TrEMBL record:
PANTHER family: CIRCADIAN CLOCK-CONTROLLED PROTEIN-LIKE PROTEIN, PROTEIN TAKEOUT-LIKE PROTEIN. Keywords: Signal. It comes from the Eukaryota. InterPro entries: Haemolymph_juvenile_hormone-bd, To_sf. The lineage of its organism: Eukaryota, Metazoa, Ecdysozoa, Arthropoda, Hexapoda. Gene3D superfamilies: Haemolymph juvenile hormone binding protein. One of its GO terms (cellular component) is extracellular space. Residues 1-17 form the signal peptide. This is Protein takeout. Pfam families: JHBP.
Amino acid sequence: RAVANPFIAMLSCVVLCCDFPEHWVCLPFTASSITPCARDDPQLERCIINAVYQVRPLLVHGDLGDGYHTPPLEPLQLDNIELGGSSQFQAVFMDLAKPEDISYDLWLTLPRIVFNGKYFMRLNLLLLDIQGKGTMRGYCDSAKAAVKMRGTRYLRNGLEYVKFTKMTMRIQFKDFKLQLDNLFNGNGLLGEAGNALINDNQDLYLNEIVPGLERGLSKKFLDVANEILATATFDEMFPPSRTIVNPIAFPAPAAGPSIFETP
């Protein structure tokens, strides 16, 4: 349904701005901005969190330095939705990074996402038939996503590579607001009432939208991850020797939930 598009845009920012492990450890390591993490490091999660903070600003525009590039993550265009604005993010590994098994579990939060795009809506809400087609804009505060990534190792030309085979996502929204233009064929009073009704009754339709959104996002980012993974071997991603890990140095906290807020 086209009405789901704004939510696809919101959660695209949550996921992509968090730079999944394939972005910050799976690229060819001649890029000096990439810090490999040893597979047997007893503090692997700490190493990975340090690495993501180092490379995250570069992934916004896609230039990792030393001639290496990735698709830019802001603005993200998806299904006629353009997403930009905040590049704040928070990511927590829950002691579940298992490089030998190609297994990662993450809990992601984003303080605010600003989005805009186009919509087509036919919605029956509290006996009111709300219809419209046009442009939309809005924001989402305190969005969260629990992400599980599973993969496998395989041989290619005598070398061992990695690909992700499954990515699942569970999404929670806390606060968001929509402004849909041209509801009721541009009738100002009805449009204002329709927008207020939609924003005041989010729970009535989010349960129908979110499952499709979760599946769509998982497929999108699984494809992106595997495109990047094709360029690095398993040993390049996670060298067998121990990585010396410095204490985590987080940037100044932004407004929003704590980075270690309990899911």
